[in-house]
Amino acid sequence: MAADDCAVLVGIARYFESSTYPPLQGPVHDVASVYEWLISKSGGDVPEANIRKLVTDKGLFDNPNLKPEDVDLSEWKPSLASITSSVFSLIFDRHKRFIRRPNGRLYLYFSGHGFTNEKVGSGAALFTAEAGGDDHANLGGTLCAEALANMRIFGQIVLIMDCCRDELSASPYGRLNLTDAEADGAQRVPRLEIYAGPKGARAQEGALTPDGPIAGYLTNAVLRALREMPPNVVGQISANRLNDYISWNWSRLVPDGTEPPKPRIHPPFTDQTVMYFPSGREELVDQEFSVPVDRSPDFKVWLQSMAPNSELPRNVGMFTDKIVTWVGSDPPIDIELSKPNDAGRQTFALRLLAIPHDLQMNVPDRTAPLIFTPGGGRVDL
Fold first, then answer.
1. Do residues 9 and 109 touch, judged by C-beta distance below 8 A?
2. Of 263, 286, 300, 293, whose CA–CA distance to 354 is shortest?
3. Residue 122, pLDDT above cutoff 80
4. Are 112 and 127 in contact (CB under 8 A)?
5. Is the pLDDT of residue 366 over 80?
6. Geometric angle at alpha carbon 278, from 48 and 123, rounded to 5°
7. Phi, psi of 220 (to 5 degrees)
8. pLDDT tens across 232-277, in order?
9. What end-to-end distance do the CA atoms of the chain give, in Å?
10. Residue 240 phi/psi, 5° resolution?
11. What is the CA radius of gyration of the chain?
12. What is the pLDDT of residues 289-338, one digit of tens each?
């Protein structure tokens, strides 16, 4: 379990002024889908106690024609105050001191109506439920992620904004009441930012199947990609590959006949820690390998799946005394080797799809590839 990971999920489907902010169907369903992924062992594996979920109340959701005078203003939630309170409940202790989770990841998910203020940057903000008239109540999602990164409260931050990015330069972003000071090392906190479209574009929702529920196209695409993408040698998906996969497969990830703008995904900077997600593929298994201690200094192996669609592109494993480094489509991945056993061998494990793989070695008497299917016994190299 990712014990230090936390999440704030916001889905706003009804607004105080429905003429300006029309009723939506997707946000409530989307928050439920993201929540299920977060608590899943094959997903985020986040403790339920560390998740704050705020969605439009059922009474408001079931009555799309409500007028402002029908409901007291305080009942229009999620509001800016309720969202702020939820964030603060995760980052402050009872003495109002920061709870620092350097090994934790914070997920910020915002769905509803939104905008971007080009004078403040290229991010986005979510209008909160009390927005209406001259009150443009909102929370700047990008500013929220930046502020928390600046304080180094979490080791990583994932921001997903399934909302429009209409350009409203006259509307200032709502902010969390946090200091603008920047903690030492704040620039090393990796952030993944996912927006439903480019600046000026509108997010879209719709039925994913003829009889299915209404869902946000971006949210569905992200969750679907995490379930179906080919993983790396340890069963993970990097933020960079997630970006590429959604971009290349966007027309397939949305319903037939729709042409919404492609999402805008900003992975962490190259000098920051690589951000990974667990693969949702059910057929992943742990496979143990062993190598002789007296291997040659230039010993290498080449591993790939035999699936026609390259479920695992060719990866090369390079060995030192204690580490095997895998180089492929992801940044290099270091895996520790065990201490030598009585048979003079060291072991390591990979997490692979249970499909046939071939493995080649630069050993004179092993010219033919070694064919195996992960999930069986140990593979001796």
1. yes
2. 286
3. no
4. yes
5. no
6. 80
7. -60, -40
8. 999 999 999 999 999 999 999 998 888 889 999 999 988 888 999 9
9. 32
10. -65, -40
11. 24
12. 999 999 998 999 999 999 877 788 889 999 999 999 999 878 899 999 99
DSSP labels for 67-84? Answer: -GGGS-GGGS-S-HHHHH
Over residues 19-36, the pLDDT tens digits come to 899 999 999 999 999 999
Q: Which two tokens stand for residue 59?
A: 């009474």
The span from the CA of 177 to the CA of 210, in Å, is 44
Contact 341, 323 (CB under 8 A): no
Domains of the chain are 6-278 (3.40.50.1460), 284-380 (2.60.40)
Ramachandran category for residue 257: left, alpha or beta (phi over 0 → left; psi -120 to 50 → alpha) = left
Burial of 370 (0-12, 13-18, 19+ CB in 10 A): middle
Q: Give residue-wise pLDDT tens across range 195-241.
A: 999 988 999 999 988 888 899 999 999 999 999 999 999 999 999 99
CB 307 within 8 A of CB 355: yes
- Asked if 47 and 95 touch (Cβ cutoff 8 Å), the reply is no
Token pair listed for 52:
């704050």
pTM: 0.94
Strand partners, 192: 158
**211-214 contacts: CB < 8 A, separation 24 or more?**
213/25, 213/29, 214/25, 214/26, 214/29
Q: Going by C-beta distance under 8 Å and a sequence separation of 6 or more, which residues neighbour residue 249?
A: 225
DSSP secondary structure code for residue 358 in this structure = E
Please provide residue 214's backbone torsions phi and psi, each rounded to the nearest 5 degrees. -75, 135
